[in-house]
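Input (Amine oxidase domain-containing protein):
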Amino acid sequence: MISTTKGKQLLCALPKFHARQSHTKPALHPVQARRFTKTCSFAYPATHSTTAPTTSDTEFDALVVGAGAGGVTAASLLANKGYRTLLVEAKDCIGGRASTRLVDGFLVNTGALVIELDGAVAKTYKDVGLSLRLYEPSRASTVLRFGGRDINITDSLVGAIRNITPTVFASISRVLPWLRPKKGESTRSWLNNFTRSQTIHGVVNNILGAMFAVRADHMPSEVFLHYFLKDTSFKKIGMPPGGTIEVWKPLADYVNKTGGQVWLNSTVSKLIFGSDGLVAGALVQRADGSEIQISSKVTVSNVGPLETVRLASPTNFPAGYAEMIERWADPAAIITVHFASQTPLAMFPCLAIFGKSRRMVYAGNFSAPELQRAPEGWHLYCGASVPIPSQGDFDVEKEKALLLEDLHDHFPGFDKAKIVAIDVTANSWPAQRAVSGFDQPQTTPVANLFNVGDGVKPWASGGTAACSQSARIVVEKIVEIFPLSRE
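Output:
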């Protein structure tokens, strides 16, 4: 990720917004409390142990590699099911590309901006007995910026048109079979059957870019139709006070309080296999430079299918599997400019999708005092673009310049704004590890090794909710296939 600022700081300095607990939790044992202090710098100042690890530090029922949305969701649900869980994260904070960092006094997101009020994250909170705290704008949460106007697409007549248009397209396709999407046909190609209007194609491009970080020429048309027809799009959303990282803190805290552990600044360097061909544990490099071997009955990877293969070693999979994953890996990219002003630059309260632009697909407004994202007297925004091509190599400087031009056009006064950071989210740290419709299964050829996250999303889904939903699916499988035995 590329940043124009020098002010990246540890998130242990951030304000904390823990969700209220809806039930009484187990008391935290003093040893666990000390261990939590050592391993979770997002909650307390971190210290490092100088003593050898005990058995309780190395034996776990479940290992979760990576504390992104999928990893934290999986770890909290496994903990709720009674699995003593170790969550290992290489960075100094949780959340991955759905987190927050402090830059020059501003709390800027690393990726995901909003959370669905009734999606997989909210369901996970309910499952573990926590209350999800989100800020809901009083006005339309999502608008379409078109011709200099912000059009409410959350409800009203425009919202109704938005909801029925895909249905009309689908109905026409059923009546006229030759208009049905062909297997693998791109959304652009299919849409050309109805219109060649550059305006309509531009709107569709930007909607897909905002939701999937991809353009219409790379999005399968059957995925596009399914996503909009099955009521999975434009759900009610909220914004976490203090940034998206605040969504994951209570869930990680829950892992610790139920007997598990969260290790930050720690890297899984290798998965260890037993003679039965199953994953038996892992080697973990700790922040203090020590290497610890841990054991686990099941392992969940949130680092993507490609990195999972590398951690496990291709020799532990059937012939050809590793090569197939190598060929499959084709992540999508997004570029984000975070900017701030001491005067308001926009009126929309949450998200804006752009009908016409060079590259910009959406913008976010984090200026509401309730969000506590900016110093007093400042207004915080971001604008994001999908480069061309959205997958593979692209001219970074050219694409950044085009996004900045769009921001100048759509935000009067932008020329006097403070550029807080510019992030290029691509390659090994991408916007999406897989374009929706091209995801790998959550299972692997190794029975007790699973993938979660944005490379294994449920079909025709996207965003943070899809990452969390992949984890919910995996935990259900684990409970069924590898039930706990406490003999």
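Residues 1-51, 156-162 have pLDDT under 50 and may be disordered.
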